[in-house]
């Protein structure tokens, strides 16, 4: 499938003042004449000769000075005031804006849980300081991340949410959806960014009717805060990423599609792009009962109409599922700018993991066109 390439956007000190110190002028004075006795004639002649000789010396000096001035011109022309040094331009004096968010450490404790053809998948338990929630997070680093050539390079981040309850598992971290292998292959072909992939859990029980809906439901674990604040904070503190939101995307299938749409619309300061694959858009957990206002604030079906989120969304539906097509197309029709929504209908597609798998190469390339790639300072 083809999706149009969208342009990105990129984005200073003041002149130095130079103080010229003043120069003190020369000081001078005349000695006073002391009153004394009357001079004799001989003494008067001597004094007269001395005065005449002094006048001659002074006259000669005056003539020499006049000749000198005539040769050099007037003092104003002779002394040229040097032009002040040019003030440095903003481009010269402003430091370059840094692109990379370097980790502050210490390195997280992670356990390898699976090997893939594109490198290992790790798992850690993240205790969120803002949410108070502790849950499993799986991590995959692209091969380039540990290459010494990229030691000062920041990488884009893709957070992936699973279908179903995702209680103690995330299908993107297993072998059913080989997103890591596909990304590594596309990177070699020059078609995709090497993404850091983050794959969190979404629930802590298998009770589908009482799911946490990737939200802060009153009286329940603050899953929305854990996902949209604690996890990004943890990733920035522990891995080389890109500053700002331009290198951050979120994607999910089915229930994960609901989560990815909701989180991107609620947090456009964190995510620039989202891909809900065959998702739904209305929160349906029974835990929302008695909390209609909070439910509405976490409803992607309403969030997309508010015209607040400047995010890019690719939403998909299976072509062989009429109900799903109706749900997705209805949601697309409600979108109000600045949110930008593209629709893709998978020919013959059904709501199956095997069909989600077929879309992985295309969605990774769409994310690559809509997110910033690796960068170094």
From TrEMBL:
Residues 73-95 have a biased composition (Low complexity). Residues 1-53, 73-112 are annotated as: Disordered. This is Esterase. InterPro entries: AB_hydrolase_fold, Esterase-like, Mycobacterial_A85_antigen. It comes from the Bacteria. It comes from Streptomyces polychromogenes.
């Amino acid at each position: 499938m083809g999706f149009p390439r969208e342009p990105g956007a990129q984005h200073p000190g003041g002149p130095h003042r130079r103080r010229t110190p003043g120069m003190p002028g020369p000081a001078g004075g005349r000695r006073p004449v002391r009153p004394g006795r009357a001079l004799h004639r001989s003494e008067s002649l001597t004094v007269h000769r001395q005065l005449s000789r002094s006048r001659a010396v002074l006259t000669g000096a005056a003539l020499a000075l006049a000749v000198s001035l005539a040769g050099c011109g007037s003092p104003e022309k002779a002394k040229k005031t040097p032009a002040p040094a040019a003030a440095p331009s903003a481009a010269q004096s402003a430091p370059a804006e840094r692109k990379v968010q370097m980790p502050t450490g210490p390195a997280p404790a992670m356990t390898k849980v699976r090997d893939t053809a594109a490198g290992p998948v790790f798992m850690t338990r993240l205790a969120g300081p803002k949410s108070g929630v502790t849950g499993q997070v799986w991590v995959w680093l692209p091969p380039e991340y540990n290459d010494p050539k990229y030691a000062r390079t920041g990488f884009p981040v893709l957070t992936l949410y699973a279908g179903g309850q995702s209680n103690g598992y995330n299908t993107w971290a297993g072998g059913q959806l080989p997103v890591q292998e596909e990304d590594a292959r596309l990177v070699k072909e020059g078609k995709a960014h090497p993404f850091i992939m983050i794959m969190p859990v979404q629930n802590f029980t298998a009770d589908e009717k009482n799911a946490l809906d990737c939200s802060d439901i009153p009286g329940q674990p603050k899953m929305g805060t854990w996902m949209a604040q604690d996890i990004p904070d943890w990733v920035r503190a522990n891995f080389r990423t890109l500053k700002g939101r331009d290198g951050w995307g979120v994607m999910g299938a089915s229930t994960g599609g609901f989560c990815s749409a909701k989180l991107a619309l609620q947090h456009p300061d964190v995510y620039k792009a989202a891909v809900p694959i065959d998702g739904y858009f209305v929160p349906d957990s029974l835990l929302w009962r008695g909390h209609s206002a909070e439910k509405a604030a976490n409803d992607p079906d309403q969030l997309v109409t508010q015209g607040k989120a400047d995010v890019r969304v690719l939403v998909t539906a299976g072509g062989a599922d009429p109900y799903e097509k109706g749900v997705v197309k209805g949601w697309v029709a409600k979108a109000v700018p600045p949110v930008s929504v593209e629709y893709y209908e998978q020919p013959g597609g059904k709501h199956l993991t095997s069909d989600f798998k077929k879309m992985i190469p295309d969605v990774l390339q769409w994310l690559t066109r809509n997110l910033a790639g690796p960068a170094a300072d």
